[in-house]
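so my prof wants the structure for this chain in the tokens format not the other one, which i didnt know existed until like an hour ago. anyway here's the sequence
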Amino acid sequence: MAEINRQILLAARPQGKLELEHFRLAEAPTPRPGPGEILVRVRLISLDAANRAWMQGATYRSAVEAGQVMAGGGVAEVLESRAPGLAPGDLVFADVGWRDFAVLAADSVQKLPRIEPLSRLLSVFGIAGLTAYFGLLECGRPNPGETLVVSAAAGSVGSIVGQIGKIKGCRVVGVAGGAAKGALLVDELGFDAAVDYKAPDFRRALRAACPQGVDVYFDNVGGDVLETCLFAMNLGGRIACCGAVSQYDGAAPAHGPRGVPGLIVTKRLTLRGFVVTDFDDRREQALADLQAWVDEGRLKVREDIVDGLENTPAALIGLLAGDNVGKRMVRVS
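here's what i got, hopefully its the right format
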């Protein structure tokens, strides 16, 4: 086994847009596990908009500080175990960080089945799929015949949300950037319509795509898109608040959604924020449903895999710019 452990550190916490200069590649000796710990080789690193939020301060996890290994979830293979229940060759999901090897507390990892391709453990059968499943079904509570709008609809979570919405009998409208992504949503993933948030009059385009209004909105972006969708909501509408990527990278927005208190009251809206771990007790049923839909061909899987640990910073910057379609991850080994 190699004695050198490459790792990507956060060189400085960004004050504006994330740039390559905010990271640096370093080398350290490969660590050894102690009692109750495992040594793992990182196989795949998950890239998520939340990676950027962790650089701004504490969220549902502690902030990443300058000089630390950049945090990130991933799939890893056990090389050495000093803990019961885990053996060399086992696959686990954990906060592995951006590096080749990691020593982890055994009670901090989740053992995974060995499936092919391994990438699906991060996409449809991982955080992306589970976030889409619980965010839509538990927070959005869609009913057949309702109109569902999904922002960042060509991304890792949004692309799955829209397809689950179709499975549940909704009319699904995806919000994405550019004609190519809109065509993919409709032609490949089965959305009923797509709206380009970069359009000169996004509000009018959304109204045209949703002539009966919006019953459920799955929000991945916040900002102006959230504000526009709020004004399109029907009486009793539900909003699943999953993320706010428009506010993670760069200067803070000049204003938040306007007129929100009055809208929430008069339209009896429900806005619910969540993180996927809120629903860990129902994980097995969710995975069974997702597996069945994939096997039946009702849920298509889109993945965007970048090779090489050294390319992880550029891959995250590209994700924040909307370069990906489907779940973006980095293949380390």
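also thought this was worth mentioning. The longest strand covers residues 37-46.
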